[in-house]
Design brief:
Shape: globular
Distance between the termini: 56 Å
Number of helices: 5
């Protein structure tokens, strides 16, 4: 039996306990998952009543500030796998940036078979924040940033070994908004931005991404309706921010 240690690299399972084998060959590199499978663990949920009050009274949607306030009101908890209609699950939506460009690709039906998402273009990599994302080093945001980084490394076929000569930077939260998830149920979406290394270039052969390309952020795409709903909202906000800088 073999296990995956890097994109395209596999190692014998029977050698994992060998003390003479370097640790870098013992780190299991997980396989990519479908969007619908991302929420199998206990997902983080925010009370919908709390979100409604927060939306009406807050000046912005700072993630850490919102989660701290939700804690004070006992409005945040991990949900059972069956979910809870009174709570919105927290999702990350991670963008990959290169100077003034954003990575875009087309969503395959295997990856996401929701009607509004399948075969549409997207600019993000989604992940549901679960109980396994929070650690001693990510208390304030319940592990949302850690989740976003893990999703990016997984979907871009990267690992910590890819950054031996440079620091692996975490994605930075940009903004948060409510969006429609599965079966019309609203989720809370945290949009984060990750600046990729200069050497990174997406290829369909390596990443199994459909039609990857770089979008110019100085203008809004002419074919905005070709994008799935989460990307539409995100693109409009991103382009508005870029134009405001000029």
């Amino acid at each position: 039996m073999f296990y995956r240690t890097e994109p395209g690299l596999f190692f014998l399972c029977e050698l994992i306990s060998d003390p003479n084998i370097p640790e870098k060959f013992k780190e299991v590199f997980p396989a990519r998952r479908r969007t619908r499978d991302l929420q199998n663990e206990n997902a983080l949920g925010i009370s919908r009543d709390f979100l409604r009050r927060w939306r009406e009274g807050a000046d912005g949607w700072d993630l850490v500030e919102m989660l701290a306030d939700a804690e004070r009101h006992e409005a945040v908890r991990y949900l059972p796998q069956s979910g809870d209609a009174e709570y919105a699950t927290l999702w990350t939506f991670s963008l990959v940036r290169r100077n003034d460009e954003m990575l875009s690709y087309r969503v395959g039906r295997y990856r996401d078979d929701r009607e509004a998402f399948a075969n549409k273009r997207t600019i993000g990599f989604p992940g549901a924040v679960t109980v396994s994302d929070r650690s001693l080093f990510s208390q304030d945001d319940y592990g949302a940033t850690e989740n976003a980084l893990r999703v990016l490394l997984l979907d871009l076929d990267l690992s910590s070994q890819s950054f031996l000569n440079e620091k692996l930077k975490k994605p930075s939260p940009l903004f948060t908004f409510e969006a429609e998830g599965d079966d019309g149920v609203t989720v809370l979406l945290v949009v984060l931005e990750w600046t990729c290394p200069d050497w990174f270039e997406p290829t369909t052969r390596k990443l199994s991404l459909n039609d990857p390309c770089w979008l110019d952020l100085s203008v809004q795409p002419n074919n905005i309706d070709d994008f799935e709903p989460w990307s539409k909202t995100t693109l409009r906000r991103i382009v508005s921010r870029e134009l405001a800088k000029e």
